[in-house]
UniProtKB/TrEMBL annotation:
Subcellular location per the Swiss-Prot or TrEMBL entry: Cell envelope
Signal peptide: 1-20
Domain Thioredoxin: 14-176
Keyword NAD listed: no
Source species: Hoeflea poritis
Protein name per its UniProtKB record: Redoxin family protein
Domain of life of the native organism: Bacteria
Entry keywords, A to Z: Cytochrome c-type biogenesis, Redox-active center, Signal
Length: 177
């Protein structure tokens, strides 16, 4: 009996600790970090206080799936159907492997013509969003600020980026929450 009680106490303690520390951060928790991130390019104004859904994508200029994803994000932004939503792109791993190439970013911006702000990421941002370690990664937050959808490009996956259809479905969920 004593073992059973100890097992229950241990399990309850472990679950309580896991739920508090593993809970995804809300948009309200992350907004200040994003608001203070340096701008790379401003395709549209970022309004950190706006209450609509938020799409945050993590990218690098050398990432082919990121180029494809930007095409879908631009289409979504241009549609006008989701004007209540904000799209924010955060650059991570730009200097991967120690290679710095500012001209590559300029070409990426020219090629993708983002209709949303591009911000420079940091380790603090990467960690706050759940230790982002793959790009592209997209996170969608609902009106309440809670995460409603996440796409992570997995190595050797057939699906390499979020599509406009994925994003529309996520935004419909985000509008409801």
């Amino acid at each position: 009996m004593k073992r059973i009680i100890l097992a229950i106490v241990f399990a309850a303690t472990a679950l309580a600790g896991a739920s508090a520390s593993d809970r995804p951060a809300s948009w309200q928790d992350l907004r200040a970090l994003v608001d203070n991130a340096p701008s790379i390019a401003a395709g549209a104004d970022f309004d950190p206080a706006r209450q609509g859904p938020v799409i945050v994508t993590f990218f690098a200029s050398w990432c082919p799936p990121c180029t494809d994803e930007f095409r879908h994000l631009n289409s979504l932004a241009a549609s006008g159907e989701y004007d209540d939503a904000q799209i924010i792109a955060i650059n991570l791993y730009e200097d991967f492997g120690g290679v710095k190439n500012p001209q590559r970013m300029a070409r990426f911006i020219e090629r993708t013509a983002p209709q949303f702000p591009l911000l420079k990421g940091s380790d603090d941002i990467r960690e706050a969003f759940g230790n982002i370690d793959r790009i592209p990664t997209v996170v969608v937050y609902g009106r309440s600020g809670d995460e409603v959808w996440r796409f992570v490009h997995e190595r050797n996956a057939e699906k390499t980026h979020a599509t406009e259809a994925d994003l529309v479905e996520a935004l419909e969920q985000a509008r409801a929450r």
